[in-house]
Amino acid sequence: MNITTYTPDYNGPVAIVYKKGDNLSISETLQNRLDAYAAKFEESWMELQDGSTTVWAFQLTKELEANERAEKMRLAGNSLAGKVNGLGLDRVKLEGPFQAEVSEGAVLGNYQFLKFFSDAHKRRNSLVQIQVEDENAEDIQRIKNSTLGTLLARDLVNRPVIDLTATKLAEEAKAAGKRHGFSVEVLEKKQIESLKMGGLLGVNYGSVEPPTFTIMEYKGEGASNQQPVVLVGKGVVYDTGGLSLKPSNFMDTMKSDMGGAAAVIGTMSAIAEAKLPIHVVGLVPATDNRPGKNAVTPGDVITISDGTTVEVLNTDAEGRLILSDALVYAKRYNPELVIDLATLTGAAARAIGRYAIVGMGNAPKEKMEALQTSGFKTRERVVEFPFWDEYKDLLKSPIADLKNIGGPEAGAITAGKFLEHFTDYPYIHLDIAGPAHLGKRVGYQVEGGTGIGVRLLYDFLSNY
Q1: Is 154 annotated in the active site?
Q2: Of the residues 19, 246, 354, 392, which is catalytic?
Q3: What are the per-10-residue average pLDDT scores of the chain (464 residues)?
Q4: What are the structural domains, with CATH classification, of the chain?
Q5: Alpha carbons 303 and 315: distance in angstroms, whole number
Q6: Cβ pair 419, 360 in contact under 8 A
Q7: C-alpha 43: how far from chain center
Q8: pTM surpassing 0.90?
Q9: Is the distance from CB of 448 to CB of 158 less than 8 angstroms?
Q10: Residue 53: enclosing H or E segment and its boundaries?
Q11: Would you call 367 a catalytic residue per the annotation?
Q12: Which of 108, 326, 430, 454 could lock onto 149 through a cystine, CB 3.0 to 4.6 A?
């Protein structure tokens, strides 16, 4: 999707979103007609003809808080994209004061994943261009960059493991770095072994594909932070559960178990494309989790790269094992803040459903509050869970330093406390298991991978 400044030869439909009383650059006749029809089409698109031009208008009639208004406009943009595609048109011109928000909803809602259709050309949406007053305006640039990263993350999540192994995920990170301007180093299996990353290697034992550990770094000119922010993304490219095998219907969407990795790659792409003045490192440990002949068995003990021993009682609690090595690796950067994103626990999804992210951590209160503020702005909301030390007791093992599950209660929190063990820096854990992949469309969040976390982190880092 291309968002561009008005072109003089444009002769397609025009979409106007406005509040009652706004001064619009339209004819008095059209303004009168809009006013006359607004009550009938309360906060929905109304279609009028202005000579030979089709005009769609959406009037906000209710006073809304700024974040709620922005979401209303994104949803309006999503439905506008549907109208344009329904008519087989390739572009639309936006007028009025909410062009950025409407564009964002249209771009996100217009997304399609067509890689494996033999007739993709027939299925492709017709809408390819949105015209705005000034494509270089700050809010339009923000939308272009954040949606760029989000759509990349969606593409990665939607690719099945036959097409996106750990090696291929690392290659996609390299390609993104080359396109957008950040450095990428990929550690292969021998290097991972030399670092004694027992969590990542342990999960990989049952696989025929090698693991990878991808290190991305972006340092913008005049970076505001002396110590980097480190983003860590869980990269389980497919999760069978290992020998603690998932029921078959629970495996159907497990290509999405690398949603955290996709979000980190998407965020690195967005901030580098925007040339934000910030220093950020992205870490992605990646493997699939399969019940192969050498797979870790329930009851085995593995050793993480910092020497911590872990009794593995459930091989389907594998994400925390690969993340533990990444969190240990993050220490070498002396980070100002570390945020991990992971489709980590079903407990998180059961607790709050698919409409928000579960967050917890030991970072200063203002960091979590800033992240939550970004969540409300982007509608990628973060619900903070308690992170009390009492939950650590549920991870005690009689034969090792830790066990990898904490029992039937508070599963999302005990997973977070397990990860905290491997940190010595300000830390926030984001469990995106609920919203990372949807079984059906919800507004501009289309069926499949949502790219959740990219818009959240882009806004957070833009204001860091």
Answers
A1: no
A2: 246
A3: 95 90 77 75 82 89 92 97 97 95 99 98 98 97 99 99 99 99 99 99 99 99 96 99 94 98 99 99 99 98 99 99 99 99 98 98 99 99 98 98 96 99 99 98 98 99 98
A4: 2-136 (3.40.220.10), 142-462 (3.40.630.10)
A5: 15
A6: no
A7: 29
A8: yes
A9: yes
A10: strand 53-60
A11: no
A12: 454
